[in-house]
Amino acid sequence: MGLYRSHVLVCGGTGCVSSGSQAVLDALKKGLADKGLDKEILVVATGCHGMCEMGPIVVVYPEGTFYCRVTAADVPELVEEHLFKGRIVDRLIYKGEGTVADVPHYTDIPFYKKQHRIALRNCGYINPENIDEYIARDGYVALVKAVTEMTPDDVIETVKESGLRGRGGGGFPTGLKWSFCARSAGDKKYVICNADEGDPGAFMDRSLLEGDPHAIVEGMLLGAYAMGASEGYVYCRAEYPLAIRRLKRTIEQATEYGFLGDNILGTDFSFHLHIKEGAGAFVCGEETALMASIEGQRGMPRPRPPFPANKGLWGKPTNINNVETWANVASIIRNGGAWYAALGTEKSKGTKVFALTGKVNHTGLVEVPMGTTIREIVFEIGGGILNGKKFKAVQIGGPSGGCLTEEHLDIPISYESLSQVGAIMGSGGLVVMDEDNCMVDVAKFFLEFTQAESCGKCPPCREGTKKMLDILGRIVAGKGTPEDLDSLQYLGTMIKETSLCGLGQTAPNPVLTTLRYFRDEYEAHINEKRCPAGACVELARYVIDAKKCIGCTKCAKVCPVGAISGTVKQPHVIDQDKCIKCGACAEACPVKAIDRR
Amino acid sequence: MPKIRTLEDLKKIKESTMDLTGARSQGKTRIIIGMGTCGIAAGARVVMEAVMAELAKRGLKDVSVETTGCIGMCQDEPLLDVIHAGEPRVTYGKVAPEDVPRIISEHVVNGRVVNDKVIGRTD
Amino acid sequence: MQGIDLTINGKKVVAEPGMTILQAARKAGIHIPTLCEHPALPVAGACRVCLVEVEKNPKLLTACSSPVAPGMVIHTHSPRVLEARKAVVELILIRHPLDCFSCPSNGKCELQEVAYELGIRDSSFKEEGDTCNSYALEDANPFYVRDMNKCILCGRCIRACDSLARYHAIDFQNRGIKAMVQPPVGRDLEHSDCTFCGQCVQLCPVGALSEKASAGQGRPWELESVKSTCSYCGVGCELNIQVNRKTGRIANVTTDYQSPTGINEGRCCVKGRFAWQYVHSEDRLTRPLIKENGSFREAGWAEALSVIAGRMNAIKEDFGSDAVGFFSSARCTNEENFLLQRLSREVMGTNNVDHCAHL
Amino acid sequence: MKGLGETFGSGAMTNDFKSIKEADVLFVVGSNTTETHPVIGSWIKERKADGAKLIVCDPRKIELAKYADVYIRHNSGSDVALVNGMMHVILRDNLHNAAFIDERVENFEALRKVVEEYTPEKTSEITGVPAELIEAAARTYAAGPNSAIFYTMGITQHQSGTDNVRSLANLALLCGMLGRPGTGVNPLRGQNNVQGACDMGALPNVFTGYQKVENADVRSRMSGLWKCGELPAAPGLTLVKMMEAAGTGDLKCLYIMGENPMVTDPDTNHVRHALENLEFLVVQDIFLTETAQLADVVLPAACWAEKEGTYTNTTRTVQRVRKAVEAPGEARSDWEILTDLANRLGAAWEFKSASEVFDAIAACTPSYAGMSHERLDEGPLSWPCPAVDHPGTPNLHVGRFSRPNGKATFVPCEWKEPHEWPDEEFPFLATTGRILYHYHSGSMSRRSAPGEFVRELFIEINPKDAEALHVEEDAMIRVTSRRGSVSGKAKITDRVPPKMVFLPFHFAEAGANVLTAAVIDPDSETPAYKINAVKVETA
After folding, report:
1. The domain that contains B85 carries what CATH number?
2. Is the pLDDT of residue D4 over 80?
3. Which of A71, C15, C332, D136 has the highest CB neighbour number within 10 Å of its CB?
4. Model confidence, pTM
């Protein structure tokens, strides 16, 4: 094949596809062909770049120019100007906050500059459906190296040395976990990739599977080799059709190259990989429930011990890691444990991928070294709070994580530091909240999720979270009592103490952490029947500012319950007892004299 | 497709695929061709094709070929810049396709500037 | 196999390898309350009532599921354990109706026992309107009644159907507070794979499942258990006939999953457990009947037997022994079959005796 | 159980229940186990779930078929051909157990000659089963290592019933699947004490423990033990023959204890005629059954829960039955009634309890000699149990067969056309049997909860036929054979193959046995319930 002077990468991640990247891709191919540039310029569909709210994203190499929100209509200009004449199309390039003097290279953009991509290293950079591109990025080098030059123990030792810990949330040392499974006796062993990404707003697993599926497969192969497993499953939510399609393609290609199947690389190491589509129940992310689901039973956790390493899938020794964990393995084996361990904090090594969402300027996927502060993520990478509002809290670790405050902004993120303040790493959800968020309401939102997703097997999680939810419901409705706070505290503690699986043991976290850091908000709801953030409808109060009011009577006219009185040209007043908080008056007021408190 | 057995097998694939991804990192050496209307009028595209052909012929993977707009020395078009990482930018003027092999073999490969074509250096 | 040394509540205990903490404790005569656990069923670890404290272990462990390990130091009734256990039971009691007075399981209800043991009168978490009443009583079939308002989701019935009856007719449906044990979505029990062997009913720890025919037939403590053998198919399941001496009637039929003598290992089918009411049927014959010109009249034993003896002797006299025949029965006891063939051979002098062996 | 008697020397189930848990291959033929023996059915499913292979042969797609590795839906009455075909494959591929045969079995060559003919192709023709299924079944069974056969009336209730059993016995011998846990040829007996009734000599040709009445020594020992005179030497009439004799008037008096031939015996119309033709009929039962209504004297008996005694189950295991409640009114235990009657007929029996009767059994029955109610109160015992210190015998034929020379013998059989086959006039094949919820004549189960659940006769019919006949679910249809006609609600299901209907026989008011023929297996005298040519119409 000829040499291409330039590559145009079009994001093919779910996010960008949904915002029309396919049309852009087609338009580009056509445009280049028309201009006769298709011999010298290659168009590539890649996985997610992370910065999804900016999609569809197009990156032009070698310059690495980062175009965002590109539409098919922009393509002719892009071709004519940049690709043909080499003139950057200013209006399409990414502008961070404010203006940018000269065109930034992809990696100079603040969103990316602070990042350190290991798991995500190929996402948005290669065509995930082309195994050769993965190999061009040193793909499968680790596998060949391991199988031909290393003993299984060497592999485990390297992973131990790297300090890699479970990225699914538990944070259990991966190498140690592997050594358990490797040591446990069994004629047959399994490795499983947990791709049952259930946290609302989380999509790192999906992006990894879509953007660099071979890395996952290579990681699992290395694990299988290290632990002596001959069969593996990727348990992926059926809601991820693109990821599943790419995985299937990946398995085909890897099998064709002899990385999967019998006698891999001509050795007696054999490994067969299957895809199991999950129904997407949240609890199936819990490893024992996940295995039950693969076995065809209802996804429900079972107590451990016995641990999967001894009695796992179909009673055989089994090792489960999540997508991100597997995605790190190949790089670790290729570059050595020390290389990975050089990143991060003392106990939490390497990098972690976060899904940054909520009230920040740039939402998206972020991979940073452990030890990075929340401030760096929210304010430097995320570009700060939307519309210059005031930062209030971040919910870290998904629905069963904790809510952290201003005062935690500068703690370096690590498994230890987070659990110290009552949160968890979780799978890496990072939801930013501003002054408009009511923390009681936020806690209620997350608890509603966990309660609805509780499998119902154990009473603490099934009954306890429901009872906590009842109490929170009372509080946001202004019917709470001071005793309710003690009940919440006690229930939360007991649920953590007695629940069967991780889902239940962490479910109370949002409530417990908000109780800890935002108790005043709870008390405002209870004692003053007031929602400081003005978010809780039942507690909202509409008040007419006598100074602003011009007495036009518009408000009185629209009020459905006649709660507003006043004479023409005179300030009006709202009878709070009658008011039903519909907000019609505020909309009707021509001078914005009515505000909600 | 024969099954992979060794690192060698991998390397072969990597080699044959390098340009796939090589073009995605600004190479150690950059060749920048002025592609303004003036440049194109003066035959910049023919020059660029010659560059691409030469690189392909020599199997040079670590050279990125970029285009840029008019840089304001229209009288000397076609313009071709060579930048070795860490060295000043050398600009060649009135470059003809037949000059390309020389520039590439002398300058790009062996680091010897082809002085008779140089019209400027900038840091 | 050498034993595993443990300490439970300060007492040195030797357990066998592979035992769970619960088994080890029971062997040592130490009581740990349970709800979802049953020796005949696979472990679930669902109800959390058997949580115990194991030193050096940050989390409390369910005794029913945790294997013993050498040197374990276990506390089954430490303050931490008791608080957790109490909380769990009170959580279960939030929705569980406390109408024990009228509940068919009163006296054998394991939730009642556990609550009593922990000194719980009512759930401190329970609030107005918490008591579950969202499930309609299911009594469409003649065998047993389902009152899912009382279900504590221990899952014993599901495991019984799965691992004993081997039908998997029911499973958990829905999630969260709506989770409930049901036949497959859109089907009622009568149109599911359920074959009404009733093993789930016997294994239900509360009053969610109860035998229809047993209603009002006697409280558990009034019943006397008589071990016998099922009279239906050729398997010969061991059954326990529960008799209420006050009424002289059968209250229900159960099986014993721990019985050393039961060849059925506690299993049974719909007939063995539920097809016993015929014993008390109105249609039972209570006096001998003699037919006179086409219709029966009641008679005493002496009369009936002498009529039979007279006629049979006469026929033997007139037509010889082989003019007489005997049908024995594959449903009668060995003793009865033995005597009938003796009656035929020894007394009437004919080998004309057979039974429906082949039907 | 004659088929097994002559091949192994003993006619009972060869293995116990525990043995199921050790089988690697379960071969279930002519047995709807999950309905007729539910607990055994659950063990079979459990074993299958734990990794054993399951072969199911039945014209009806019974529940077990769902779980089968190999499911064979062969034509009714083609069992002999099917099994011969399997043996053909096994011999062709040298999968048989030569060592076992050399050491323990006779008459191998004869078998080889017979099964030679039954190539998969020919077998496929007779059975209507694809050749590859027959091959698969053969290989699976032979592979074992431990393969167990289970069968019920689906095998025995044919004119060729004994041949069917012989064939299965041949198959087991051929592969050496006997004498070990997890193997065996296991007839699952239908009724709770059918094994016991046979053991007790409630058969025309043998005393207790299958001691032949022809044998003079046996007779004299018995008369000695029973302190009575000469005992009759000539074998008596079988049940079906007695019924014939009653019809012709040769039999004058019949004493029926706990049986209801009006429902359970073939050709109900003939049975009624025969019983009415008797001079004197005594029926001893717990209900005024269809049969009792024809009696001259009816005696009220105590039922299962009201008496002491023992049952012997299908694995030859003797267990105690205990009195739980009082019998109603003046009803008495059968053993009391019989003792009373015998003494009125001149005997001098002094039995005071069922336990004493059992001791008398032990005294004259070698295989029961070591048993007593006292011992049985400790737990069940399987015969043979010859001495009080003998633990009983869960598995038969370990090391040695019960035939005089200790060896078993092959009894090769050729497949024969059934006595009756669908034709122009009677195009359907009707087969009768049990269902889970009822038992035999239904006199007990229909007076209990199950009676409310399954109230009346239903007739299984294949969707294709239902469509052809324009029959809807639950519509009344009439099934008519050369002997009679019965109506019931149509149950449309592919459990039955096209051109077959299935009728449970528990419902007296709509007795399936109106249809059946008194045609019997010449060897075992078992009625051929499973094959009846009938026509089906909307009623």
Report:
1. 3.40.30.10
2. no
3. C332
4. 0.86
**In this model, does residue C60 exceed pLDDT 90?**
yes
Domain C132-211 has CATH 2.40.30.10: no
Closest approach of C283 to chain A, Cα-based (Å): 48
Q: Determine the residue type at C174.
A: N
User: Residue A454 falls within a domain, yes or no?
Assistant: yes
| B18: in domain | no
Quote the pLDDT of residue A98.
41
Instruction: Name the packing angle between helices A323-335 and A141-149 (round to 10°).
Output: 60
* Average of per-residue pLDDT across A136-145: 91
Q: Which domain holds residue A499?
A: 439-527
Mean pLDDT, all residues of chain B: 79
Q: Subunits that touch chain A (at least 3 Cβ pairs < 8 angstroms)?
A: B, C
When divided into structural domains, chain A yields a total of 5
Task: Provide residues of C within 8 Å CB-CB of chain A.
Answer: 43-48, 51, 60-62, 65-67, 83-84, 87-88, 91-92, 94-95, 125, 127, 152-153, 155, 171-172, 174-180
CB contact under 8 A, A500 and C46: yes
Instruction: Enter the CATH code of domain D2-187.
Output: 3.40.228.10
Closest CA to A119 of A493, A428, A400: A428
C-alpha A212 chain-centroid distance? 16
The 3-state DSSP class for residue A266 equals: helix
Structural contact between residues A440 and A472, judged by C-beta atoms closer than 8 angstroms: yes
In 3D space, the residue among D480, D508, D402 whose CA is nearest the CA of residue D179 turns out to be D402
pLDDT at D265 over 80: no
Higher-pLDDT residue of C87 and A281 is C87
Alpha-helix residue ranges (DSSP H) falling in D93-189: 98-104, 108-116, 120-127, 131-143, 153-156, 161-174
Q: Does D194 touch chain C (CB under 8 A)?
A: yes
What type of residue sits at position B36?
Answer: G
Looking at domain D428-538, which CATH architecture does it have?
Beta Barrel (2.40)
Better pLDDT: D527 or C97: C97
pLDDT beyond 90 at D155: no
Q: Under CATH, domain C220-280 is a member of which superfamily?
A: ADC-like domains (2.20.25.90)
**Partner-chain residue, chosen from A63, A125, A258, that has the shortest CB–CB distance to B3:** A258
Rounded-to-integer distance, Cα C49 and Cα C66, Å: 14
Reported ipTM: the value is 0.84
Q: What is the DSSP string of D247-302?
A: HHTS--EEEEES--HHHHSS-HHHHHHHHHH-SEEEEEESB--TTGGG-SEEEEB-
Measured between beta carbons, which residues in chain D are less than 8 angstroms from residue C353?
Answer: 201-204, 236
